[in-house]
Amino acid sequence: MQQIQTIGIASGLAGNHEGCSRGPIALRDSQYLNSQCKKNGIDLHWLPMLSANISLDKNQAIKQLCSQAALASSACINNKTPFIFFCGEHAYAMGIWKGVMSALAMYKPRAKKLGLIWIDAHMDAHTFVSSPSGNVHGMPVAALLGQGDDALKDIYGDGPILDSKNLGLLGLRSFEKNESVLLDRLNVTQITMEQIKQESLTYWLTNLRDTVLKHADYFAISIDIDAIDPKDAPAVGVPEPDGLNGASLCEALEQFNNDPLLLGLEIAEYSPDFDQKDKTLHLISALVIAIFGEDS
Questions:
Q1: How far apart are CA 23 and CA 228, in angstroms?
Q2: What DSSP string describes 46-95?
Q3: Which of 66, 101, 138, 256 shows the smallest number of beta carbons within 10 Å?
Q4: How far is CA 119 from the centre of its chain?
Q5: pLDDT for 223-239, tens place per residue?
Q6: What is the CATH number of domain 2-292?
Q7: Is the pTM of this model over 0.90?
Q8: Rounded to an integer, what is the distance from CA 102 to the centroid of its chain?
């Protein structure tokens, strides 16, 4: 039985649907998720749930959650334990992966670098200057790449940034020009749904792993549930049609099972209010099992 450090971030401050804050709590309390994981040799060791300090200004509360997430992810790296973060919103990726990078930078005799596979319908590369909505859940990629405006930099805080060569985005199909211009300028690898229709998901994920590891020592995976087609994963606040096939994604992720260079996983934006017959819950369970299960 493999123990996975499991951290929930129950917050809906960074988007326009507060119901996503209930996603991590629903997953923690789900008999289905936890029992299916156990059947497949996974012990989800749940740490105390992180939630927003409602006495703070919204952006300061998001900043505090990101700092708490960074401490938790950094501890996982220092203890060499695999981890899963279940986040109400993708905004907290800023803290999760900054914490991982901070811990890797302390490795001796040589600092290590992170490669990140970002699976999402959106680029999440806005700033407060470019964003039409001002929602922080659309900004974590810009922040991680060190491209935030002053307000976003304040939320991100001091610490390492992700080398653009070490990032690959997959599943893209809904984004604004400002985001694509930024990522193109930085030469970030981007795989759109149009490209995925030409080759298998397994091919593209293999390609992304190889790409980010050219200049990184380890890699991790961040999944926004809206990357998946709403027919397979309806429980999201921002559904985008023509997305990834859920079963195909699980099959493609199995190649990373027991990969010694895989550090951890983030799954974000699960909104149980929108689920249909627990379809998304079952898919999230399958994603976790694909990566960490004994029989995958």
A1: 16
A2: EPPPEE--TTS-HHHHHHHHHHHHHHHHHHHHHTT--EEEEESSGGGHHH
A3: 256
A4: 7
A5: 999 999 999 999 998 88
A6: 3.40.800.10
A7: yes
A8: 17
